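Form 7-S
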Amino acid sequence: MMETVRNCKKHNIKVGAHPGLPDIQGFGRREIKMSPDELTANTRYQVGALKAFLDVEEVPLHHVKPHGVLYGMMCRDYETARAVMEGIPKGVPVFGLAGTEMEKAANDLKLPFWAEMYGDVKYDRHGMLVIDRKKKAWAIEDVRKHVGQQLNSQSVTATDGSVVQLPIRDYPISVCCHSDSPGCLDIVKTTKEVIDEFNKGHGR
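Output:
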């Protein structure tokens, strides 16, 4: 953490916390049943650990984005989403999936909400993420189409071939790519190219 925070400071990269379930062996991608109090405490513990290193380097905590299967649990279940967000410092933005219980809980707790899109994760016909325990390879042209569709039409082609609208509204947008996806650097570079093209086309 110390090395990562120092590198982010050196290269002027914003830093966010990525709290997940205490599933070390499964990298936070296996569901664990926890009480609301446990979820809140777990979030405070993980966010607080990062914030200690950020404070030493005088780097602000930019956002919090739940990790892995916890993210999906929060999308589906309001009580889970609210319990996790109770552990997030007030005023810190939350990255999440718009149109889900995550968005509702963030709004109810008056936490700034950023809508997430994905460069290397597929969606089902309900607009929910299809979480793989082990990331699969993407063709770069498919990444370009996937990100471009989300940005330009606020929609996505689901795994069954249907087109699903994404209720982004006027939220700030973040596009997530995973470092454990095969070919992650090419995925990130391609995603950034699509974002830059989108911003340029909209005068940003």
